[in-house]
Amino acid sequence: MVDATNTRPIEDEVVRDFRTAMSYGQYLNLEQLLGAQQPVSEPEHHDELLFIIQHQAAELWLKLVLHELRTACEHLAGDRLQPALKGLARVKHIQHTLTEQWSVLATLTPTEFVQFRGFLGRSSGFQSYQYRAVEFVLGNKNAEMLEVFRHDERAHALLSGLLGRPSIYDEFLRHLSRCGYPVPAPLLTRDVSRAHTYAPELVPVFRQIYESAEENWAAYEACEELVDLEENFQFWRFRHLKTVERTIGFKRGTGGSSGVPFLRDALDLTFFPELYAVRTEITR
């Protein structure tokens, strides 16, 4: 029989009194979280809320990505490969969410964005210190980037610390060496404050792993997880590029970059070049 009121009664056991119990909103600190969207356009433009929430949501996901990647580095340093891969699997799901999120911002038309873009001043996604931190952990180190965050003590300290720490690729190569793989010694003692560059002498190590996958399954699986990670990152970069191109064309970025050309150059950056190069060498 259909309930004529079209309502669902609240069960007696459902908690109603939160004078002494912690509520959902208190646990998540929703008052502060939902109060953090402060449009600056005058008069306030309807679509600025979308722009703010899009970027704030991305920063929350980046916080979790950074958390998982740093923990994965610790696991690799302790030769705990499986927990490290578990963390990378979670990161891959977050990357899919971050990439798909661009489709929401793409609903912001050029006509709508131009009406409040000027109010952003010099602020730009280029200044996302969490994004730069993720790049540092993945291995795209650039000491020049620290100058952008000189004004922010917390961001500068985070990036300075990560600049001097091994990337996840450094930790993986060290793990492989401890497992008996002939990783070239210079790669194990290199200056980790600099971006890793292509080392052809590393390719035979990965060729051994790939051509004898059954005997090297743990390392083989880890290599493919890292390739997934980089591929997803490139998908995110490309979707970012196309969303910017769709929204502002070839205008300069608010932070001073060339805009679309600057984003396109990032597509040439790679974290794990030997894991791609080895594919040309595999013969069986």
TrEMBL record:
Physiological role: Heme-dependent dioxygenase that catalyzes the oxidative cleavage of the L-tryptophan (L-Trp) pyrrole ring and converts L-tryptophan to N-formyl-L-kynurenine. Catalyzes the oxidative cleavage of the indole moiety.
Species per Swiss-Prot/TrEMBL record: Saccharopolyspora shandongensis
Gene3D superfamilies recorded: 1.20.58.480
InterPro entries for the chain: Trp/Indoleamine_2_3_dOase-like, Trp_2_3_dOase
Residues that, per the record, bind substrate: F51, I52, I53, Q54, H55, R117, T254
Positions of heme binding: H240
Subunit details: Homotetramer.
The name this protein goes by in its record: Tryptophan 2,3-dioxygenase
